[in-house]
Specification:
The protein has 704 residues and is α/β, with parallel strands linked by helices. The strands form five sheets. It has a five-stranded parallel sheet, with helices on both faces. A five-stranded antiparallel sheet has the order 8-7-6-10-9, sandwiched between helices. Helix 3 links the parallel strand 3 (51-55) and strand 4 (81-85). Helix 2 packs parallel to helix 3 (63-72) and helix 6 (137-169) packs antiparallel against helix 7 (174-185). The radius of gyration is 44 Å and the shape is elongated.
């Protein structure tokens, strides 16, 4: 009976040891399993092993160091070592072979490959044992030669597979990868080979052969162009996903349960491949399947990216052409409007007082005005789309904006005998806005309500302010809006259902202008309707500077004559600037605005003044001596009793990165010298109330 040999398996993972046990128990040998390099060295001291399976990556002593120590023992100096690794580059492979490794097996292992390789060394060990029992130098030499040949074959096979992995992984181009695979097998393993890979559109098929000492490679259009000996086997393997061995050896390229393609080999002079060649071929095909699938996926991704970019460029180009067309059309339409309007004025001054002429002149005047408004809206949409519209903001009263819009929309409302109710706050509500553009927003909403409200209908417009916001509401009892149309009413050229006579008129761009102009003012607009025939409500919300209450009497002076009085709506403002004139002039202006102001000239004085003065607002220069403005701001934000203070940077640093640095330090506003002091006053009014609660705009700089 054949003596059983010892096989040492070294891996720090228990589950992998269990896998190796399951794979190798079929060999019916003594499996010795340890979980570290130290344990492996102890085992080597006590017994002789036929082969050692050694994991490269282990926590205490890695596989390469363990192999070096194993080679230092005379008993194990020549024991075959097979490294198990999930990845092996050329440097690691060379280091392993320098330590006497006979093979590298990539994890996860293929059971048949592992058994086949271990069986070689089991048989070699058993052969050595038999040789020891035999007499005769000839038998000993033969055994040694067999071992050498086996080791050389294993080394050759390992080197071949290592080179194959490098070649296959060197490129993500699918066709180049296919050609490299065929270069590996012809003429080394066969005289001719064919490879098919299932690409996204149609199969890719390449053929390589050796004829009269010359190698030829070519891509073929289909299976019909393949040599007859390869055509049927390849199709069958691709279809069934199972290998075929005969005159043509064919192996499927499989990824999990999916067959990616197949490789067929034909050797006319030596039709039968050796068992070790079949093992090598199986391992090669397995690695090739992974590499080619990665290349196929990469190619698909690249094509998708190209298509996506092309589609995006086409959309951008179409949108650009649309904007250019709208701009050109608007400008071209405006050219004839001017002489028509001039002619109307000439007729008004020179024509005789005839009722028919007056009626015709008024018709022309109204229609020219309507056309001019439509052209202006069309041009505004083009300007906004191209980012060429700019707002000329100033402090304006909301009531004045509404009055101007009502005046603009009144003729259309009167013609339809509609009732308009206007409600505005009694106290001024100040906005930082472009008067003309915001009036256009309100007028467009009124015109829209009038268009979709029947004769004799009712329209209401109301305005209110609170908590840093101004709200404008336009409500009507007209046609209403279908539920499916509500999310789209602000889209360009979208309109509700029209009668054939198109009595409402318009191009469907008025509400688009409303939305975009409101957004340019950092506001938002919403629409609500209970359905057809139930009217519609449009709500515009805008940031406001302040809602100014009627003037209040000053607080009575304190009994202590040393204390100064402060108006009800004043703030305590700390001005910090090392330029004395700048600090005092800023303080003087703010005192005129009703604030209690203290001026200091460096960062340390500013921090020392906090507990005594307890400011609501700090106007802070950045370039202070010693402790600069950024450091002062950070300390103010980190202190619990001053984290609510409104911080305004007044500085000579005005680049974009300076603004970002100020925001990071905790500033709410950033003004570049020489700043308009009225802007500082506006920021104070917008920023925080006396109790220190922030308004909606208090973090304007940090949200930029």
């Amino acid at each position: 009976m054949e003596e059983k040999c010892d096989i040492l398996i070294v891996d720090d993972l228990q589950e992998k040891l269990l896998v190796f046990n399951t794979i190798l128990e079929e060999l019916d040998q003594n499996l010795v399993m340890v979980r570290s390099g130290s344990e492996a060295l102890r085992e080597i001291l006590h017994r002789e092993f036929a082969v050692i399976l050694l994991d490269v990556n282990m926590p205490d002593i890695d596989g390469l160091e363990t192999a070096r120590l194993i080679r230092q023992y005379k008993k194990s100096a020549h024991t075959p070592i097979i490294f198990i690794t999930a990845y092996a580059d050329e440097m690691q492979t060379a280091q392993g072979y320098s330590l006497g490794a006979v093979d590298y097996i990539l994890s996860p292992v293929i059971p048949e490959v592992l058994r086949s390789k271990v069986r070689v060394f089991v048989e070699l060990w058993q052969m050595q044992q038999r040789t020891r029992a035999m007499a005769g130098e000839h038998v000993a030499r033969a055994t040694a030669e067999a071992a050498r040949m086996a080791a050389e074959e294993t080394t050759r096979r390992s080197n071949f597979l290592a080179r194959a992995s490098h070649e296959l992984g060197a490129s993500l181009d699918l066709e180049q990868g296919m050609r490299r695979l065929l270069d590996l097998v012809v003429p080394q393993m066969a005289e001719s080979a064919a490879l098919v890979v299932d690409a996204d559109t149609e199969p890719l098929i390449y053929v390589r052969s050796e004829q009269h000492g010359r190698l030829q490679s070519a891509r073929v259009a289909g299976y019909d162009e393949l040599p007859e000996v390869m055509c049927a086997p390849l199709q069958r393997v691709v279809r069934e996903g199972l290998p075929l061995e005969g005159e043509t050896v064919s192996y499927p390229l499989r990824i999990g349960e999916r067959t990616l393609g197949a490789l067929a080999l034909v050797s006319h002079n030596s039709p039968d491949l050796l068992p070790q060649d079949l093992v090598t071929l199986q391992e090669l095909v397995s690695r090739a399947a992974i590499a080619l699938d990665n290349a196929r996926l990469y190619s698909s991704l690249q094509r998708e990216i190209v298509r996506s970019r092309q589609a995006e460029e086409e959309l951008q180009d179409a949108n650009r052409r649309k904007d250019e067309f709208l701009a050109m059309l608007s400008h071209e339409l405006r050219n004839p409007l001017a002489p028509i309007r001039n002619a109307v004025e000439v007729l008004r001054r020179l024509s005789p007082p005839d009722s028919k002429l007056t009626m015709a002149r008024d018709v022309i005047d109204r229609q020219v005005s309507l056309l001019a408004r439509l052209v202006e809206e069309l041009l505004d949409v083009s300007r906004i789309s191209r980012g060429k519209i700019s707002l000329k903001k100033e402090a304006v009263d909301l009531a004045r904006i509404i009055a101007h819009a009502v005046e603009t929309a009144r003729p259309m409302i009167d013609v339809r005998s509609q009732t308009l109710a206007v409600s505005v706050p009694s106290a001024p509500v100040w906005l930082s806005a472009d008067f003309a553009r915001l009036s256009q927003v309100v007028a467009n909403l009124l015109n829209n309500s009038s268009k979709y409200t029947g004769e004799g209908g009712r329209i209401e417009i109301s305005a209110s302010a609170g908590e840093g916001e101004a709200t404008i509401v336009v409500r009507d009892n007209g046609a209403g809006i279908e539920p499916q149309l509500l999310p789209k009413v602000f889209d360009l050229f979208v309109q509700g259902e029209r009668a054939l006579d198109r009595g409402q008129g318009g191009l469907g761009i008025g509400l688009t202008l409303v939305k975009r102009l409101v957004e340019l003012h950092q506001g938002h607009v919403e629409v609500a309707s209970e359905g057809p025939g139930r009217g519609a409500t449009f709500t515009v919300t805008l940031p406001c500077i302040s809602a100014v209450a009627p003037q209040q009497p000053q607080r009575a002076a304190q009994t202590n004559p040393g204390l100064r009085t402060t108006e009800v709506y004043g703030r305590r403002v700390l001005v910090v600037d090392d330029n004395v004139d700048a600090a005092e002039s800023t303080a003087a202006f703010l005192r005129l605005e009703g604030h209690e102001v203290k001026a200091v000239h460096d960062g340390l004085q500013a921090l020392a003044s906090l507990k005594v003065f307890d400011p609501h607002v700090v106007v802070l220069d950045i370039g202070l001596p010693g402790l600069d403005g950024y450091a002062v701001a950070r300390q103010l934000r980190e202190r619990g009793d001053t984290s609510h203070v409104l911080l305004i940077a007044l500085t000579g640093y005005g680049q974009k990165e300076d603004r970002q640095r100020a925001a990071d330090a905790g500033f709410d506003y950033h003004f570049v010298k020489p700043a308009d002091p009225r802007e500082i006053q506006v920021a104070i009014e917008r920023g925080r109330n006396i109790e220190g609660e922030p308004t909606l705009e208090a973090h304007a700089l940090r949200s930029q």
